[in-house]
Amino acid sequence: MKAGCAMETITPALPVMLAGFGVQRKAEDVHDDLYVKVVLLKAPDGYYGVISYDLLCVDGLLLERLKTGMDEMSLDSSRFLITATHTHSGPCGIMETGEGLARGMACVAGVKDTKLVEAVALKTLEALKRALENCQETKIRIARGSLRGLGMNRNNRALTGDEDVFAAELIQETGSKVLLVNAACHPTVLNHENVSVSADFPGAVNRLMAEEGYAFTLYLNGSCGDISTRFTRKGKGFPEVERYGHLLADKLKEMLLEARAAAAEKVSIESFQVQLKLKKPDDLEHAEKELKASQKRVDEAVEQGIEGSELRLIESGRDGALMSLHYARNAPLETFQTVTISILQVNEELFAGIPGELFSELSNRFKNEHVHFVGYAGGYYGYFADEAAYDCLNYESLSSPFERGQPEILMEQIGRYIYKKRKEA
What we know:
Blueprint: E1 2-9, E2 16-17, E3 26-27, E4 29-30, E5 35-43, E6 46-53, H1 60-72, E7 80-84, H2 106-109, H3 114-133, E8 136-146, E9 152-153, E10 164-172, E11 177-183, E12 196-197, H4 200-210, E13 214-221, E14 227-228, H5 238-256, E15 260-262, E16 267-277, H6 284-303, H7 308-329, E17 336-346, E18 349-353, E19 357-358, H8 360-363, E20 371-374, E21 383-384, H9 387-392, H10 395-399, H11 406-424
Parallel strand pairs: 4-12, 6-7, 11-13, 18-20, 19-21
Antiparallel strand pairs: 1-5, 1-8, 2-3, 5-6, 8-10, 8-15, 9-14, 10-11, 16-17, 17-18
Helix pairs in contact: 1-3, 4-5, 6-7
């Protein structure tokens, strides 16, 4: 297979407001750079690929701009998985929060910044151009493993989440090496107190694997809607980011010792759409009461001396009530949302791109060693939470725009597609 790879820096100019957590944070320094990373695969019928950003998420604001530029390069954007790592220490302004389902997310993702979007798009097109220029014969090696301690279910300690790690090593004929990694965990080692630009632990992995000779490591986040570092981190700040980076990098090095060669003889991408019902918003009075009640629970917990991950669990309920209030104030007029799922196939490997934060409790039963899920891909529609989360009134279900049970309908459609592809194979 011929492949092309490139990376460009997308670190924003300072100062910049940081996205994530719903807390106003201004960054005036950069701990580590943010990147856009591109991998192209050349098939007989054209190019396919993956584009990944060290950003909170991507939506139509950036995707439409990319489509225009890619058309001019004779690249079909529908043949690419375009995704984000979901770092909570990247810039605000990359999303359209003035309309649609994201109208209530300005407190999390900021107000759209067209200059920033244009700058990121131009850097992406530069990376695509360089990837086309260095497209060459490439060997591919596949490695699989599991890693405990990176993340776990952030609401229920009895559930481990998804500990699978998948890696694809691309070795170009010039000797340049690139690593694609798929694992599931919110990059939130850095909490709401952080005021430095950073890619969080995926950035640390990128740097550590660069020391092993890799041009870059492209991190594809998995079904991490319910998985984070809440119960696995031992501290906060950049020393802990470094520990997480070593945890995953050491596992990758171990896995690669037993990697097997794989010929990428077949590459394709197919998309399909699913109509999901949106939930009815609370009336404002009820939403405001719920927020006051949840804040009272946080205050009582602080008075009782509860701290750390246990306090964060209670705070997340308050944060969910806040997002529920934002949804009530900015509820969309539509009653259904069309969700597009894109599935990239490389030989027997299937990568299902989900435009949001999918729960591992939903996707785990559809996974096997050849089926992988990629979150934050092709758009952003918030959380796809399972019914149990709605019963518990978790942050994820409170902030999700979808009616209870709708994510299960989405997974049924994905499951049918996966079954069909397996029969064809």
